[in-house]
Amino acid sequence: MTLTFGAVSAQNRKGTIEITGDIKVGELVKKHVEFNERLRTVPGYRVQIAALSGPNSRNQAFELKSRFKESYPDVEVYIVFSEPNFRVKVGDFTSKLDAYVFMQRIKDTYPGTIVRENVYPVHLDWSEMIPETDEDADM
């Protein structure tokens, strides 16, 4: 396997770098790139119902999650730790309008809610994935 890269030195001279290695490494890198190209994300939104900090904030976040799930069992709840806050976010909305509509529905119970942008992975159905070769099946 040979990889060639164009390079520019400090004196603006062009050159090439040649890396020679096992062909299997190149095949593995190629499969890795192809796999990552198949994974996709889509933009989305969640409603943040709390940002908690302090010594008991973790417990408060999980208690809030439980209370929310009792009222809205069909809505997903996420706890995200971003030092020093535990943020409690709800929903998986694909449009900002849907997130705002839901926020209006819960804002009396959960004051201070805000809509946050989020990125969701597009979930692939791995059961329908068929290896391209027998070697792929062994990986």
Strand content: 35-45%
Query: What average pLDDT do the residues reach?
Result: 80
What is the annotated CATH architecture of the largest domain? 2-Layer Sandwich
Percentage of residues assigned to helices: 25-40%
> Whole-Å distance between the termini?
21 Å
Instruction: Report the biggest beta sheet as strand number plus sense, adding barrel if it closes.
Output: 4 strands, antiparallel
Based on CA inertia axes, which overall geometry fits? elongated
Instruction: Going across the biggest sheet, name each strand in turn.
Output: 4-5-3-6
Cα Rg: 24 Å
CATH C-level label of the largest domain:
Alpha Beta
SSE string, helices as H and strands as E: EEHEHEEHEH
SS content category? alpha+beta
> What is the third-level CATH name, the topology of the largest domain?
Alpha-Beta Plaits
> Using DSSP, what is the number of strands?
6
Q: Helix count?
A: 4
Number of domains: 2
- Which residue ranges are poorly predicted, with pLDDT under 50 across at least 5 consecutive positions? 4-9
What name goes with the CATH superfamily of the largest domain? Sporulation related repeat
Describe the structure.
By secondary structure, the chain is of the alpha+beta class. It is built from four helices and six strands, in the order ββαβαββαβα. It has helices at residues 23-38, 57-71, 96-106, 134-138; strands spanning 2-8, 14-20, 41-52, 77-82, 85-93, 114-121. The longest helix has 16 residues, at 23-38. Mean pLDDT is 80; it is low at 4-9.
Name its key features.
single chain, 139 residues, alpha+beta, Alpha-Beta Plaits, 2 domains, two-stranded antiparallel sheet, 4 helices, 34% helix
